[in-house]
Amino acid sequence: MALDTILVKEITINSDTRDCGGCTVCCTVSRVPEFNKLENQDCVHQIEGKGCGIHTKRPMVCKKYFCEWAKGNAPEDFKPDKVGVMLERVTDDIMSFLIPPNRKTNWYNQKTEDYAQLLKSQGISVVTNTGKVLLAEGHDTEYVWEQIEKQARINRIID
Fold it and tell me: Is the pTM of this model over 0.85?
Protein backbone atom coordinates (compact mmCIF):
# COMPACT_ATOMS: atom_id res chain seq x y z
CA MET A 1 0.00 0.00 0.00
CA ALA A 2 1.50 3.36 -0.99
CA LEU A 3 1.80 6.00 1.70
CA ASP A 4 -0.22 8.51 -0.30
CA THR A 5 -3.23 6.18 -0.39
CA ILE A 6 -3.75 6.39 3.36
CA LEU A 7 -5.82 9.23 4.74
CA VAL A 8 -5.08 8.79 8.40
CA LYS A 9 -7.97 10.88 9.75
CA GLU A 10 -10.53 8.64 8.07
CA ILE A 11 -9.08 5.34 9.21
CA THR A 12 -11.04 3.66 11.97
CA ILE A 13 -9.83 1.00 14.34
CA ASN A 14 -10.49 -2.43 12.89
CA SER A 15 -11.94 -5.10 15.13
CA ASP A 16 -9.66 -7.54 13.35
CA THR A 17 -6.06 -6.69 14.09
CA ARG A 18 -2.97 -7.56 12.12
CA ASP A 19 -0.88 -10.44 13.41
CA CYS A 20 2.10 -9.19 15.42
CA GLY A 21 4.04 -12.39 14.78
CA GLY A 22 7.50 -12.01 16.25
CA CYS A 23 7.34 -8.23 16.67
CA THR A 24 8.20 -7.25 20.25
CA VAL A 25 8.67 -3.49 19.92
CA CYS A 26 5.71 -2.75 22.22
CA CYS A 27 7.28 -5.13 24.76
CA THR A 28 10.24 -2.75 24.92
CA VAL A 29 8.81 0.75 24.54
CA SER A 30 5.67 0.30 26.67
CA ARG A 31 5.26 0.47 30.43
CA VAL A 32 3.74 -2.60 32.11
CA PRO A 33 2.75 -1.74 35.70
CA GLU A 34 1.97 -5.38 36.58
CA PHE A 35 5.66 -6.24 36.13
CA ASN A 36 7.02 -2.88 37.34
CA LYS A 37 8.43 -2.62 33.82
CA LEU A 38 9.36 0.88 32.74
CA GLU A 39 9.26 2.31 29.24
CA ASN A 40 12.23 1.54 26.98
CA GLN A 41 13.25 -1.60 28.82
CA ASP A 42 12.92 -5.11 27.47
CA CYS A 43 10.19 -7.13 29.13
CA VAL A 44 11.48 -10.24 30.89
CA HIS A 45 8.85 -12.27 29.02
CA GLN A 46 9.65 -11.08 25.50
CA ILE A 47 11.40 -13.49 23.17
CA GLU A 48 13.14 -11.50 20.45
CA GLY A 49 11.83 -12.44 17.02
CA LYS A 50 9.19 -14.76 18.48
CA GLY A 51 6.89 -12.59 20.62
CA CYS A 52 5.61 -12.86 24.16
CA GLY A 53 6.71 -15.86 26.21
CA ILE A 54 3.50 -15.68 28.28
CA HIS A 55 1.16 -14.62 25.48
CA THR A 56 -1.85 -16.63 26.71
CA LYS A 57 -1.30 -15.42 30.33
CA ARG A 58 -0.12 -11.87 29.65
CA PRO A 59 -1.52 -8.99 31.76
CA MET A 60 -4.68 -7.19 30.69
CA VAL A 61 -2.72 -4.05 29.77
CA CYS A 62 -0.85 -6.12 27.18
CA LYS A 63 -3.98 -7.90 25.95
CA LYS A 64 -5.76 -4.60 25.35
CA TYR A 65 -2.88 -2.79 23.65
CA PHE A 66 -2.44 -2.65 19.89
CA CYS A 67 -0.13 -0.22 18.12
CA GLU A 68 -1.45 1.71 15.13
CA TRP A 69 0.10 -0.81 12.72
CA ALA A 70 -1.62 -3.75 14.43
CA LYS A 71 -4.93 -1.87 14.32
CA GLY A 72 -4.53 -1.42 10.57
CA ASN A 73 -4.04 2.34 10.91
CA ALA A 74 -0.61 2.42 9.28
CA PRO A 75 0.77 1.13 6.00
CA GLU A 76 1.27 -2.65 5.82
CA ASP A 77 5.02 -2.21 5.36
CA PHE A 78 5.27 -0.03 8.49
CA LYS A 79 5.42 -2.97 10.92
CA PRO A 80 7.37 -1.76 13.98
CA ASP A 81 10.03 -4.49 14.01
CA LYS A 82 10.75 -3.87 10.32
CA VAL A 83 10.79 -0.07 10.24
CA GLY A 84 12.15 0.55 13.77
CA VAL A 85 9.27 2.79 14.86
CA MET A 86 6.06 1.95 16.71
CA LEU A 87 3.17 4.32 16.08
CA GLU A 88 0.87 5.28 18.92
CA ARG A 89 -1.99 7.75 18.63
CA VAL A 90 -1.80 10.40 21.36
CA THR A 91 -4.85 12.40 20.25
CA ASP A 92 -6.73 12.78 16.99
CA ASP A 93 -4.14 15.30 15.84
CA ILE A 94 -0.93 13.98 17.41
CA MET A 95 0.91 10.77 16.54
CA SER A 96 3.84 9.46 18.54
CA PHE A 97 6.72 7.63 16.86
CA LEU A 98 8.15 5.42 19.61
CA ILE A 99 11.67 4.26 18.89
CA PRO A 100 13.17 1.37 20.87
CA PRO A 101 16.58 2.09 22.46
CA ASN A 102 18.38 -0.27 20.07
CA ARG A 103 17.09 1.77 17.08
CA LYS A 104 17.71 5.32 18.36
CA THR A 105 20.44 5.96 15.80
CA ASN A 106 19.03 4.25 12.70
CA TRP A 107 15.26 4.66 12.74
CA TYR A 108 15.10 7.86 10.71
CA ASN A 109 15.02 7.12 7.00
CA GLN A 110 13.10 8.11 3.88
CA LYS A 111 10.16 5.84 4.75
CA THR A 112 9.66 7.29 8.23
CA GLU A 113 10.23 10.84 6.96
CA ASP A 114 7.67 10.38 4.16
CA TYR A 115 5.08 9.02 6.57
CA ALA A 116 5.71 11.81 9.09
CA GLN A 117 5.30 14.38 6.30
CA LEU A 118 2.06 12.69 5.17
CA LEU A 119 0.69 12.88 8.71
CA LYS A 120 1.73 16.53 8.95
CA SER A 121 -0.04 17.32 5.66
CA GLN A 122 -3.22 15.84 7.19
CA GLY A 123 -3.03 18.11 10.24
CA ILE A 124 -1.37 15.57 12.53
CA SER A 125 1.74 16.58 14.46
CA VAL A 126 4.40 13.93 14.99
CA VAL A 127 6.49 13.57 18.15
CA THR A 128 9.14 11.02 18.99
CA ASN A 129 10.53 9.72 22.24
CA THR A 130 13.91 11.01 20.99
CA GLY A 131 12.69 14.62 21.11
CA LYS A 132 11.95 15.23 17.43
CA VAL A 133 8.75 17.21 16.79
CA LEU A 134 7.15 17.81 13.40
CA LEU A 135 4.35 20.33 13.83
CA ALA A 136 1.21 20.34 11.72
CA GLU A 137 -0.14 23.69 10.58
CA GLY A 138 -1.83 25.50 13.45
CA HIS A 139 0.06 23.57 16.14
CA ASP A 140 2.86 24.85 18.32
CA THR A 141 5.15 22.92 20.62
CA GLU A 142 3.34 24.11 23.73
CA TYR A 143 0.02 22.74 22.45
CA VAL A 144 1.56 19.39 21.50
CA TRP A 145 3.35 18.88 24.83
CA GLU A 146 0.23 19.94 26.78
CA GLN A 147 -1.79 17.28 24.96
CA ILE A 148 0.87 14.64 25.59
CA GLU A 149 1.00 15.49 29.30
CA LYS A 150 -2.80 15.47 29.51
CA GLN A 151 -2.90 12.00 27.91
CA ALA A 152 -0.13 10.79 30.25
CA ARG A 153 -2.19 11.92 33.27
CA ILE A 154 -5.21 10.06 31.95
CA ASN A 155 -3.09 6.93 31.44
CA ARG A 156 -1.74 7.13 34.99
CA ILE A 157 -5.30 7.33 36.34
CA ILE A 158 -6.34 4.32 34.26
CA ASP A 159 -3.33 2.28 35.41
Answer: no
